Amino acid sequence: MNYTEGSEELKTKRAKKMMLWFGIISLSMSFAGLTSAYVVSKERGDWLESLVLPEAFYISLVVIIMSSLTMHFAKKMIIKEEQRAGMFLLLVTLALGLTFIYLQIRGFSEIYLQSGYAFNENIAFSFIYIIVVVHIAHIIAAIISLFVVIYNHFKQKYKDGKTLGIELATTFWHFVDFLWIYLFLFFYFVR
Fold first, then answer.
1. Quick one: how many helices (H) and strands (E) in the chain?
2. I need a labelling partner for 170 at 20 to 30 A (CA). Which of 18, 77, 85, 102 fits?
3. Is residue 31 one of the residues assigned to a domain?
4. Which domain holds residue 143?
5. Keyword annotations for this protein (predicted)?
């Protein structure tokens, strides 16, 4: 396929999708670097060997997977132009996203209460804080994009096949969800 062919609308759509994928690849490399630094730092003498993931992180894993499902089905409903079902699923996704952030904050509280360590008192916890906070920043970006999608859907802008906004937001939402699954499994298995 020649990417220079097609209408201006089609070229714009391809360009926006490509820009999103470049961003996703860039973010993936950033998190790969952070987790690599975590692995290298494990060799330090002051590394905490008995790292226990907080219960809130387990619950947030379930919440993030559910949000990915609701976002997927919201996109399907919006493409089918089933307005009410689409809006309901978008709002459920928003609630799950906000719940995820709450659970991450609760997880930090659990870490502090269980171990007594604060952000800068142990290198292992410092890594967890940094990585999770950077992920939360991306979740907030996904929530902002979700607000834009909810607004546009409310204004009925996703009609007649013009669904680029929901497509991009869904791709980014799935990325940040997958990213948490990766981070959770990483912290679970690499202690």
1. 5, 0
2. 102
3. no
4. 67-191
5. Membrane, Transmembrane, Transmembrane helix
Retrieve residue 84's tokens.
């009410």
Across all residues in the chain, what is the average pLDDT?
89
Which residues, other chains included, contact 184 with Cβ-Cβ below 8 Å and sequence gap of 6+? Answer: 53, 57, 60, 61
**Is the pTM here over 0.70, yes or no?**
yes
Count the domains in the chain: 1
The label of the residue with tokens 């991450």 reads: 104
User: Tokens standing for 61?
Assistant: 């894993």
In a domain, residue 20? The reply is no
181 found inside a domain: yes
Determine the angle formed by the axes of helices 55-79 and 83-115, rounding to 10 degrees: 170
- Contact between 153 and 94 under an 8 Å Cβ cutoff? The reply is no
What's the Cα-to-Cα distance from 40 to each of 52, 59, 62, rounded to whole Å?
Answer: 19, 28, 29
